[in-house]
Each structure stands twice: as structure tokens, then as C-alpha cells.
Design goal:
about 800 residues, alpha+beta, six-stranded mixed beta barrel, 24 helices, 21 strands
Length: about 800
């Protein structure tokens, strides 16, 4: 089938001008490809519905303002039970909590720590998900006396059990106990978060003393609204229930939320990463706009060169509509080819994004599908019309007499066309400046965050988690003996300088906080509590990480089970609860009185948060079953990971090492999402600046070419080359200056959206603004220098002859 005439002519022009065509296609491919790649990620993370039944009716439920003003606190077991009994807006309401299991070695496989969830029996029905094989828990199996049962993820079943269908009904050993496998979930199901490998029933594994606790907040709650009930209605009802519970709890001195909050499940799933993704969408949109401006300028240049051809077409009967369609066909062809190449670039870019994105939820679902394809087609159509419309309108208005009289002379753009081209350059510069401002702010914020004093020395420190199963280490003496032996063996390994233990190292997570009272002080008013982070550490932990002793002493080997209970506090603890006092010798009530024997420097839980009041208890009092080994080494800490794991295996062959990382890697993980966003924004900003510089260079070069005769006359009449160069530089810098002013104004508004992503930096940071403006001025001047230099090389005689 023959192609339409206009399309055939557009293809001939494309082939006839390969340099022009290749430049336009590559610019559009970069812009469209970047937008397609980011849309692919945004669709998977923000736009695609959750893979559950009627996902718009699924919500997360929270206690609010338990201690501070945080509206999204986890929930205590007793409050969950009351919500379940009293709330009427919910068709179902399920609870879950994190837990870990050591999967015993079998068939030559190493023991492995599995990330698991203990869940109420109705979780899977609440989500509307059925197992791929077997069944889920029944209500009768969700009790302390029920048998030990588990459900496996599809990924664990395939990886660890080689997709053996006979695993249903078989026993596996978790923490040294037999668990019967009753089901396998469908591929991709890992609720409530990436990496969940198995599920166990909640009330079988929730400690007996915690099952009716109102003060122990650790459960995540998900609910399904009844048909017709809105999130606002559900929130109002639950908040009223929570307020009544809080008033009743005040009289008993129980710590509970002052209210409750209900939020759509989809919204809470992506709340942490949404600002960064929205920022990236804006950035790639700017890149595409700059690409469109560049191609528009290219098409305008070619349209001016084709004025005589268009005049002849009009003279022999072509209507303005036909001319418009011809020019738009050419621009749409360029955009279509650019989109095809852009999809290929997006496939590669999306794969790279998924591999480097870290813990962004649902990003593993990102991929090219029909939605992404039609998005790219829509972008290509819009781009083709945008870049082709201005050249088409300019070229279709033809003055036949003047154009035909020009003969073979070069066409000179009118003032309106020149002003339009300068405006386009100003737009490019403005958009580039806005991206650079955002990039500069994020970079300064990131550097400030990385330079924060976390309170410890991370060089050459290896960490390794150890979790002792309660079935085999049920008593304090057993746990103490294990930790002492493990520390002794670790310290004997060549290359180990020091070794200690702590429940969780800095920057690695929250662990737990506790309500405390100060001995001898009057009770606080109802509803007020004193809280501090709770850590357990051995005597050498502080020395391994270089945490300084400010007052008193560290723990010693004498601080054991039979010794009087003691604690060490942080400086933030002393400032909060002993302002202007010497805390040494004071006693804190934490399950009993504990004497403060030392004050150590503050250690941050997260780099971007101020240090919180923290208290440390002696590890060798034996209450902790989960701990982290921290080891300072003489050389590369990673080289000692295997020797230490071998010692752990000799001590207990069923215990896996957990999260073997250096302290530097832990710190890197805490800034991973910021680094991911900063890297992409820097890439887009750099691309935008290059495209803007190319656009400025192209416009100025074309202008010099069109003004060759004028510049020759000026030189012939005595103008110096310096005067000519300054004139050309000013011609190029005028639109750049306008772009800088517009970019600063636009950046002032746009960077307010970045405020939640910044640390220690204001959106209107003067250093960043000055640096970015200086960079744009330098790049713009560099883009103008070559055309300015070429203008000084014009031979007046040759110019006048032309």
C-alpha cells in the first residue's frame, strides 16, 4: 500500500537532510525516552492499583499522638481488639507484626534468617487474596494453643524448596521448632512489604503478656471499608472510639493514642517516596520541553530556508491548510521515530532504575506495558504537534511577490520570527536554571546530611545480627553464656581489634522505646509520659564505635544478672530529664529501679533527626535475645565476615548471620533514596543545560549566517573585530539573561515543593542560587563564544559580494 503523498515527501526530506534529521530525532528520543522511563516507574509505584480485591476500599488504621504529634503510630493489641469490637465502618480489620525466623539448614543448605509476619487469621480475606496452593489460617488456628503452622511466599518456595508441591503438609524447622506448611501464596504477593518470605498466625506468636497490652504499640492494622463508607466517615468513627479509650486509659496510667487516623492503603504505601517521584516527573517534563524548544528552533531554521519552495507550492494552488498539514506531517514523523528510539532507551533506563532504586515500594513491577506504550504514543503526538505548529504557521503565511523576488538570495527572518526564537532560547535557559536550582539544593542538602556527626566512628567496623530462638535459649543464663562465648571467639580471630554487642547499631532502625519515671519525683499529670529509646549493650560496645564517655563509667563484667541493675544514659537523656543536675547516682524506674552509672555521647537514630534520649542496659543481665555484633578490624572489615560466620556456625549450626554489613554500608542505606533522587535530577539537569547551550549556539550561529552581509558592511565601515564580537555576544546573552530572570522567579515557586526533601537548606539558599546563576552565565557565554569568534573572521569583500 502506497504511503500518502505528504508522508512520502516528509520521508524524502528526512533522508535528504540526514544531519538535521539525526539531530532532531536524537534530541526528541532523549526527551521522550526519559519521560517514558520515569512514567514507567511512577505508574508502577503511584498510579497502578494495588493487586488486591477492590483496593480503593482498603485502608490503614493508626493510633495518633501517642506521645508526640505523630498521626501515624502503630497500634497496641488491646486497642486493636477494642476497635474490632466497636467499629462499624469496616467489613474486616486485620492485624500484623514483624517477626524473624531462622530456617534450619537442610540438604547442605546454610541456615537462613527469614523475614516474616505474624498476622491475624483474616488478613488474607481482608486483602481479598487466596493462596496459589493449600490454604490460609482459620480463626481456630489463631490462638496461643494452636499448632505451629506457616504459609510460604512463592519466592521462598521456589528458591529454598525447588518448587516442590509436596512441601504442603510437610514440616520445616523454624527456630528449632517444627512448623507445618499449609499454603503457598501467589507470585508477587509479599504484603506488607518487599521481602516478606512467610506468614505465621499472630496470637500463636504474640507473647502472652502482650496479647492484652494497651501500652505496647507494635501492630500494623489494615481494614476493608464497608460498601458506601468513605475514608472520612471511617476516620471520624475510629477517632471517636480512640478518644474514649484514651480517656479511660488516663485513669490507669496507660500510654495510648489521643485519637486515631485512617488513610487509604495505597496512599500510605507510597507516602515516603511520593515527593521524590513527583519531583522527578517535573524534572523530565522540563527536559522534554527543552527538547521540544530545540527541535522547534531547528524546524524554524529549515522553514526559513524553504520559503521559496513553499511560495512555489502556494503559487501552483496549494492551500494554507495543505501547507500546515505538510509541516505537521514532517514534525510528527520526527516525533514518531524519536518515540520509537525513546522506548528502546526507556527499556534500558527502566531496568537500570529498578536495579538502583533501593527500597522504593512496588518498583519491581515497573516495565513496559500497554499503558506505557500508549503514554509514549500520546507524548509523541503532542510533541510532534508542539514542535511543528510554530514552524508550520510561520511557513504557511507566504508573501508570494516578495519571496519570489528574493531569487537565490538567503532568506532573512523577520523581527517577529527572531523575537520568537529568542523567546524559545529564554525558555530553555529558564527551565535549565530551575532544574539546576533543584539539583543544587538537593546536592547541598545531601552533603550536609552526610557531614552530620552521627556520634560514632564508622571506619573499619563490621556488624552482624544474631537472633536467639526462644525455644532453645529460653533463660537469661543461656543467652548470656552464648553472647559471652561468641564475643570471646570473635576477639580471638586475627585482624579483630575489638568486639562488642548492642541490640541495634546506630542508623539501623528504631528497635524500641520505653516509658520511664524518675525515682523521687512526683507523678506526671494524666496523659503525660516520659520516654526514651531503649538499647542493650555489652561493656565493649561503646569502645568499638568510639562513643565517648562524658561522665561516670562504662559497663563492666561485674554488671551481671546477680548485680544491682544499672544503666548508662545519653547526653540527650540527661538534658531532657536532668537539666542542670548531675544524673550520676539517680535512679530510673524501668521495670524496677536502675541506677545511672554513666553518661555517653549522643548517637543518632537517623541522620536527619536530632538525637533522642537514649538509655543502655547491660547485655549480660540477659534479657535480650536479638542483638548485633559490632567488630572493629585492622583492615577491610568485609574480609572478616566469613571467619566470624564460621565461628557462629561452630557455636550453633542452626543460627544464621543476619544483615552482615559494615557501618559505612548502614549509613549509605540511610541516604539511598536521597542519593537515587539526586543522581537522576543531576542527570536531567545536566542534559537540560547541554540542550539549552546547543539551542543558544544554534540560534546565534544561524543569526550570524543570516547577517553576514550586514556584519561585512560594519567591518568595511571601520568597526573593530572586538566591537563585532561584543555585539554578537550581547545578542546571544540577551535571551539568556531573560531566561535567568524567569528561571529565578520560577525556581522560587518550584523549589517550595522540595522543602520536605531538604535537610539544613532553605529553598532560597543564596549560595546555591548564586552558584547556579554563575554556571548558567558561563555556559551561555561559552555557547556564544564560537559564533562571536566566527563573526570576527568574516571577510568584508566576500561578504559584500554575497
Amino acid at each position: 500500500m502506497a504511503l500518502p503523498l505528504q508522508l512520502r515527501y516528509a520521508v524524502r526530506l528526512l533522508v535528504k537532510n540526514p544531519g538535521f534529521s539525526l539531530a532532531a530525532i536524537l534530541v526528541l528520543a532523549l526527551g521522550i525516552g526519559a519521560n517514558t522511563a520515569i512514567f514507567t516507574v511512577v505508574r508502577a509505584v503511584l498510579l497502578a492499583p494495588l493487586p488486591y480485591k477492590d483496593p480503593d476500599r482498603l485502608v490503614r488504621l493508626f493510633e495518633s499522638r501517642v506521645v508526640a504529634d505523630n498521626p501515624y503510630n502503630v497500634v497496641s493489641p488491646e486497642n486493636y481488639r477494642d476497635w474490632l469490637a466497636q467499629a462499624t465502618s469496616y467489613q474486616q480489620m486485620a492485624a500484623m507484626g514483624g517477626i524473624g525466623f531462622a530456617l534450619s539448614s537442610a540438604s547442605g543448605q546454610l541456615p537462613e534468617l527469614l523475614t516474616a509476619q505474624m498476622v491475624s487469621a483474616n488478613l488474607f480475606d481482608t486483602l481479598g487474596v487466596r493462596p496459589a496452593r493449600g490454604r490460609v489460617f482459620t480463626p481456630e488456628e489463631d490462638s496461643l494453643e494452636a499448632p505451629r503452622l506457616t504459609i510460604l511466599s512463592d519466592a521462598l518456595w521456589r528458591r529454598r524448596f525447588a518448587s516442590d508441591p509436596n512441601v504442603i503438609g510437610a514440616n520445616i524447622r523454624l527456630d528449632g521448632e517444627n512448623y507445618s506448611v499449609i499454603g503457598i501464596m501467589p507470585p508477587g504477593f509479599d504484603y506488607p512489604g518487599p521481602g516478606i518470605q512467610l506468614w505465621v498466625s499472630m496470637w500463636r506468636h504474640e507473647p502472652k503478656g502482650s496479647q492484652h497490652s494497651r501500652g505496647n504499640h507494635h501492630l500494623s492494622i489494615v481494614g476493608r471499608l464497608k460498601p458506601g463508607v468513605t475514608v472520612s466517615q471511617a476516620n471520624t468513627e475510629l477517632d471517636g472510639i480512640a478518644r474514649r479509650i484514651h480517656q479511660a486509659a488516663l485513669a490507669k496510667g496507660e500510654l495510648t493514642g489521643k485519637g486515631a487516623a485512617v488513610s487509604p492503603l495505597a496512599e500510605r504505601t507510597v507516602a515516603r517516596v511520593k515527593p521524590m517521584l513527583v519531583m522527578l516527573v517535573g524534572a523530565v517534563a522540563c527536559v522534554l520541553l527543552i527538547a521540544c524548544v530545540n527541535v522547534t528552533n531547528l524546524l524554524l531554521t529549515r522553514a526559513l530556508a524553504r520559503r521559496r519552495e513553499v511560495a512555489i507550492r502556494a503559487a501552483i494552488g496549494a492551500t494554507r491548510g495543505q501547507l500546515l498539514r505538510q509541516f505537521l506531517t514532517e514534525s510528527l514523523l520526527l516525533a514518531g521515530i524519536g518515540a520509537a528510539l525513546g522506548i528502546w532507551l526507556a527499556i534500558w533506563a527502566t531496568d537500570a532504575l529498578v536495579r538502583r532504586a533501593g527500597d522504593i515500594p512496588r518498583i519491581e513491577e515497573a516495565g513496559i506495558n500497554s499503558d506505557v506504550f500508549w503514554f509514549t504514543v500520546s507524548v509523541a503526538l503532542l510533541t510532534g504537534i508542539v514542535v511543528g505548529l510554530a514552524p508550520a504557521l510561520a511557513s504557511s503565511r507566504v508573501d508570494l511577490t516578495s519571496t519570489m523576488q528574493e531569487g537565490g538570495r538567503a532568506s532573512t527572518p523577520g523581527k517577529r520570527t527572531g523575537l520568537f526564537r529568542d523567546t524559545l532560547v529564554a525558555v530553555e535557559v529558564a527551565l535549565s536554571l530551575m532544574l539546576l536550582i533543584g539539583c543544587g539544593l538537593l546536592l547541598k542538602s545531601f552533603l550536609k546530611l552526610r557531614s552530620v556527626d552521627a556520634g560514632y566512628t564508622a571506619d573499619r567496623v563490621l556488624t552482624m545480627g544474631i537472633s536467639l530462638p526462644s525455644s532453645r535459649y529460653s533463660t537469661n543464663p543461656q543467652r548470656v553464656a552464648f553472647f559471652e562465648t561468641m564475643l570471646e571467639r570473635t576477639r580471638s580471630i586475627p585482624g579483630v581489634l575489638a568486639a562488642g554487642m548492642v541490640t541495634i547499631p546506630p542508623l539501623a532502625g528504631h528497635w524500641s522505646d520505653e516509658s520511664i519515671t524518675i525515682e523521687g519525683r512526683p507523678p506526671l499529670p494524666p496523659g503525660q509520659f516520659q520516654q526514651a529509646l531503649n538499647r542493650t549493650a555489652d561493656p565493649d560496645y561503646f569502645r568499638v564505635l568510639g562513643i565517648p564517655l562524658k561522665q561516670g563509667r562504662f559497663f563492666t563484667s561485674a554488671d551481671r544478672l546477680d548485680a544491682p541493675p544499672v544503666m548508662i544514659i545519653s547526653e540527650a537523656f540527661a538534658r531532657a530529664y536532668f537539666p542542670g543536675e548531675d544524673p550520676l547516682g539517680k535512679r530510673v524506674i524501668l521495670g524496677g529501679p536502675r541506677e545511672i552509672v554513666g553518661v555517653v555521647g549522643d548517637v543518632r537514630k537517623q541522620l536527619q533527626l536530632d538525637p533522642e534520649p537514649t538509655m543502655y542496659s547491660p547485655l549480660f543481665r540477659g534479657s535480650a535475645s536479638n542483638t548485633t555484633l559490632v567488630v572493629r578490624t585492622a583492615g577491610d572489615p568485609a574480609s572478616l565476615a566469613i571467619p566470624i560466620q564460621k565461628e557462629l556456625g561452630r557455636l550453633d549450626s542452626d543460627l544464621p548471620a543476619i544483615s552482615v554489613r559494615t557501618m559505612d554500608q548502614i549509613a549509605e542505606g540511610g541516604t539511598g533514596q536521597r542519593r537515587f533522587g539526586l543522581t537522576l535530577l543531576t542527570l536531567f539537569a545536566g542534559l537540560a543545560v547541554v540542550l539549552a547551550a546547543i539551542g543558544l549556539y544554534g540560534v546565534l550561529s544561524y543569526s550570524i549566517e543570516q547577517r553576514t552581509a550586514e556584519l561585512g558592511i560594519r567591518l568595511a565601515l571601520g568597526a573593530s573585530t572586538g566591537q563585532i564580537a561584543r555585539m554578537v555576544l550581547w545578542q546571544g546573552m540577551k535571551p539568556a539573561a531573560l531566561g535567568i530572570v524567569a528561571g529565578l522567579a520560577g525556581g522560587a515557586a518550584a523549589t517550595q515543593l522540595l522543602e520536605t526533601l531538604l535537610y539544613g537548606v532553605k529553598p532560597a539558599d543564596p549560595q546555591v542560587l548564586a552558584g547556579v546563576v554563575a554556571l548558567i552565565v558561563l555556559v551561555s557565554a561559552a555557547a556564544c563564544l564560537v559564533p562571536a569568534w566566527r563573526s570576527t573572521r568574516i571577510d568584508p569583500v566576500v561578504a559584500l559580494r554575497s
